[in-house]
Amino acid sequence: MEFQDAIRRRAMVRSFSSESVHRAAIDRILGAALRSPTAGNSQGTRWVVLEGNAQTAVYFDLTTDETWRSDHAQWNEGLRRAPVVLLTYTSPDQYVARYREPDKVSSGLGAGPEVWPVPYWYGDAAFGVMAVLLAAVDAGLGACILGAFRGEAELAEALGVPGGWRLFCAVVLGHPDGRDHRTHSLDRTESTFDERVHRGKW
Question: Which of 42, 39, 62, 41 is CA-nearest to residue 50?
């Protein structure tokens, strides 16, 4: 698939079939994520792959509550059918340690996470997620990002995630079932190119 086609076709899918995804396809998608930029070659992101209902249910059960499940019943059902959930984790400590090394120490960023004006660890996690979304389109699959709003500690304990690693988001992955529902976000007026791009000055 041409890159521009993948860009145009990328969209959040919220309703999946239960058809499994081949392990080779998952590995190719994650390979794209691991090729994404990483500040100082810190390599401070990790992925946890949950495959099949028994594993993906751990994620959904620990990160949603009864209110969400009742208020978003259609979303919940369509998302839970997806056979794969990819969890991206990032380690602020790994970046701080990298920026204490001789070639980076002059930045002052090795003093601790609190001195970083922009936390590179979240940027790197986002780069990886974007690579996953585009690679999913290239593989003929659908994907959806779910934010880390609740249950992070419980999920980390259940999955054996070491201390210091933060959940950035989940990417739900699978075959779209064609029953996706329209969200209110799509009704927002789309800004023009010139409204969002400024040349030379704002």
Answer: 62
CATH architecture of the domain with residue range 3-180: 3-Layer(aba) Sandwich (3.40)
Give the confidence band of 65 by pLDDT, cuts at 50, 70, 90.
confident
How much is the CA Rg of the chain, to the nearest whole Å?
19
Residue 95 near residue 39 (C-beta atoms within 8 A): yes
User: What confidence tens digit (pLDDT) does each residue in 141-156 have?
Assistant: 999 999 999 999 999 9
d(CA 21, CA 121): 29
Amino acid identity, position 12: M
Is pTM, for the whole model, over 0.85? yes
Strand order in the sheet with 166-174: 45-51, 84-90, 166-174, 142-147
User: Which pair of tokens denotes residue 184?
Assistant: 């209110």
